[in-house]
Amino acid sequence: MNIKQSKISHSIYDSPKFIIWIFLILFSGCATVGPDYVPPEKKVPEEFNAQLEAVKIEPPKPEKEQDSAPPIPVKKITQEMLGDWWNTLEDPLLSELVERAIKGNLDLRLAQSRVREERARRGIAAADRFPTINASASPARQQTSGETGTGQATNLHSTGFDASWEIDLFGGIERSVESAKASVEAREEELNDTLVTLVAEAALNYVEIRTFQARLTAAEKNLRSQEETLQIVNDRLESGLTTTLTLEQANYNFENTKSEIPTLKTGIEQGKNGLAVLLGKFPGSLKNDLENYTPVPILPIEVAIGVPADLLRRRPDIRRTERELAAQTARVGVATADLYPKLTLFGSVGLESLSAASLFTGPAAAFSIGPKITWNVFDAGRIRQNIKIEDEKQEQSLIQYELSILTAVKDVENAVIDYALEQVRRKSLIKSVEAATRAVDLSRELYTTGLSDFLGVLEAERSLFQFQDQLALSEGSVVSNLIRLYKSLGGGWKPLMADTLDEAPRY
Predict the structure, then answer these.
(1) Are 372 and 11 in contact (CB under 8 A)?
(2) Structural domains in the chain?
(3) pTM here?
(4) Residues forming beta bridges with residue 303, ordered by sequence position
């Protein structure tokens, strides 16, 4: 016998005593070794440092009704509305595309498959609680040695059932089930996190496309205006009222604006292709859906971000790391259980006969029953090192959990600041565009009347194009920052989302 693998075993063959002994084991209770999982202390600040102050999005008022236009009411978004936050943007096409992404995205289907896989693993772990039963039947021909037996050949026919059942004396199996259950819950939260990321990325891609389209519209508008200016300069040159230098200045300004258009069109097409992939479609499939430009509504929205503790209940990534910590804590118990003996009940019942004809007719019944105790007596060093490994993995899971909380709070703080301050920037850019538009009209009038040179027109047109482009980018950023705020708050999924997995299509 190998000393390192030596085991203590014992069998009881006296049936009455055996039954009494088993009864005492089953009803005396079993110990569960290893640490019991206790949720970690919630270490979060009492409130966010950045708050959405009285900075609100105010759409430009009609030119003729600046004083009489009724104020647009501010929409307040609560925690309960975060599950389908994209509907708050009041863009039907965006809502449709998000729903299509949820149904067709391949990353989401992959996450769903992983949940089903983990649920199957949980089933395997739970099956260890119950006995295993095997059926067998075999005909055999055997011959004993002439030295130790008769030396004659005989036929042996047998059939029957074998059963074994490991009694979970020290909770190793129960800890394994606990770990599997927590792992399933972690994968479900991973699915929710994938959903949060998916809807945010789909919405961001959509806003990016609309932003490029807005910039393209502004560029084409400026190009037409600069073309008119170029024609004015050309007419004045033919009349001898200006110089060739002025014509060349007007021409390079026009061509410079024209050169921006291919880049903007490229951005639009690349955005469409990226969004199509998120929807589980081939690039080019959204050409008709997004052909016509419609701006993303910029609504006056306030978000009730709540307190940092809300993130622990809302953010799937935090919920996932907490469940992974629970799973790893249970694995420590699984490793610890190897320090203690294991009790297995075994039994068999069947028929044995020297002929197939008498197998079911003669006195062929045979049975055996008994317990077996195994104990890795001399493997304590290896087992204790394995426990240390699982302990360190538990510590790593705890650190990962704490890191996920810090990251979540940082994401919200940054998103709040970006969302609030970009609105301030947008207001200034609106005023800049208005002033630059007036400057272009005034400088062009002064130039045509001979009261100023062409440099004023040139500078005004450049500034107008720049401010209009920046305004389009800012308006896209306002909506994008709002989307990132929704994402940072864990918006985009609803409780029990993973329970609908069985209804999801399989391919």
Answers:
(1) yes
(2) 43-130+176-336+384-503 (1.20.1600.10)
(3) 0.82
(4) 77
